[in-house]
Amino acid sequence: MKLWIPPKVSEILDILHSHGYEAYVVGGCVRDSILARTPDDWDITTSAKPEEVKKLFRRTVDTGLQHGTVTVLLGNDGYEVTTYRLDGEYEDSRHPKEVTFTSSLEEDLKRRDFTINAMAYNQEEGLVDLFGGMRDLQGKVIRAVGEPKERFTEDALRIMRAVRFSAQLGFTIDEKTYEALAELSPNLKHISAERIQVELVKILTSKHPEYLEAAWETGITRVILPEFDAMMETAQNTPHHCYDVGRHTLVSLMAVPADKVLRLTMLLHDVGKPVVRTTDEQGQDHFKGHEDVGERMASEILKRLKMDNDTISKVCRLIHWHDYQPVAVEKGIRRAVNRVGKDIFPFLLQVQLADTMAKSDFGREKRLEQITKTQQIYEGILEANQCLSLKSLAVTGKDLIAMGMQPGKGIGQMLDFLLEKVLDEPDYNKKEYLLSLAKRRLESQSR
């Protein structure tokens, strides 16, 4: 098997080889190259010790000398070069207490997480596959290297990585590996929120976000997102739904693009339903106020996961408005965009479409017609470049002060008044006309 390696990576391998050291590209870049995917980065493993690597290259960065890693800089690019190593005892379910350098590639590969990530390659020897990585790539299987319990005990984050690789590649998880996930998933409590967040987002933005169900089945979400377990246990006995809350959520995840904000919104858009659910005398469920409760819960969850503020803001606003149905006429849509926010209104339509497609057929056609009509009107409003917020109003606070108004809250109130007029009639958005409206209003207020 012949794999393409970037010229700069080949240069590093050649220099190491020419000085008598073994060197290979290793891990994810080998896996992705075999699958005809573009690797995110190229990792190199070598028999050379870190200090030996540093002597061979003019520009290096001490990325993690204690773990044997040196970053070699060639031009504007950096490549991590790591010495073959053995990991010592793991004390925190994440990091080895110490590492020992070794001259054996096999010893280095056997400490890696999954067989598909435990292959090495160079152009002289070809593929080094000691643990059946090619077999599992061809069989589309995620399998731990060696004994699964040992691999997951060493680093509990591998538990989430198994589900993540499964979701990204569309692979099944080997039965023995799956059993170990379920047994050791409580160890995820030792992993930092930042690490959990990264893996969760990768699962959600993968080709198969619905594989999050495996995280529920193996107890992963019970540790990292117990609110999802409550959703999986909450029925929706209404004509509008054909799934419980959790499965409705999984289906809706598949119906939006693989965007972080959209997928997080679909994950949490109904998170408030288990809290507010009531059942009437006819046995029908109701979820009054779940948007407001869900918005608050989502904010707490995303903060707990150390999500960035911009993502938290957008996701929570989308959850707040996800059931909002504006009147599908121009004036109604302009007001809706102003209320919801121009920055997320296109996302809201995608959220509502996904939400609708994950429900029963009852009322679906009518709802889809409204979403389509709203989308068409919105696009027309954008094409006409109509004013939708104070930002695009033809008059500013400085204009009102220049007209004679005193600085203060009255300025903001006047701008809001003028915006209301423009939202009703976009042709009013002319500076002279709006200033005349402002003058007349001031005069009427002074009488």
Q: What's the layout of helices and strands?
A:
Elements: H1 7-18, E1 23-26, H2 28-34, E2 43-46, H3 50-56, E3 60-64, E4 69-74, E5 77-83, E6 85-87, E7 99-101, H4 105-110, E8 119-122, E9 126-129, H5 133-139, E10 141-142, H6 148-154, H7 157-169, E11 172-173, H8 175-184, H9 193-204, H10 212-217, H11 220-224, H12 226-232, H13 245-253, H14 260-268, H15 273-276, E12 278-279, E13 285-286, H16 290-304, H17 309-321, H18 330-340, H19 345-357, H20 364-383, H21 397-403, H22 409-424, H23 431-446
Parallel strand pairs: 2-5, 10-11
Antiparallel strand pairs: 1-2, 1-8, 3-4, 4-5, 6-7, 8-9, 12-13
What does the model show?
The structure is a single chain. With 447 residues, the protein is an alpha+beta fold. The chain is built from 23 helices and 13 strands. The mean pLDDT is 95. α18 crosses α20 (364-383). The strands form 4 sheets. The protein has a 7-stranded mixed β-sheet with strand order 3-4-5-2-1-8-9. A hairpin with a 5-residue loop joins β12 and β13 (285-286). The chain is globular, with a radius of gyration of 29 Å.
Which descriptors would you attach to this protein?
447 residues; alpha+beta; 7-stranded mixed β-sheet; two-stranded antiparallel ribbon; 11% strand; globular
Number of strands: 13
Beta-strand level of the residues, as a percent range? 5-15%
Through-space gap between termini: 89 Å
Q: Indicate the low-confidence ranges by residue numbers.
A: none
What is the spatial order of strands in the main beta sheet?
3-4-5-2-1-8-9
Overall pLDDT metric:
95
* Number of H- or I-type helical stretches: 23
Query: Gyration radius, to the nearest Å?
Result: 29 Å
Instruction: Provide the helix percentage.
Output: 40-55%
Helix-strand category:
alpha+beta
User: Could you say which overall geometry the principal axes of the C-alpha atoms support?
Assistant: globular
Q: Name the quaternary structure.
A: single chain
Q: Main β-sheet: number of strands, strand sense, barrel status?
A: 7 strands, mixed
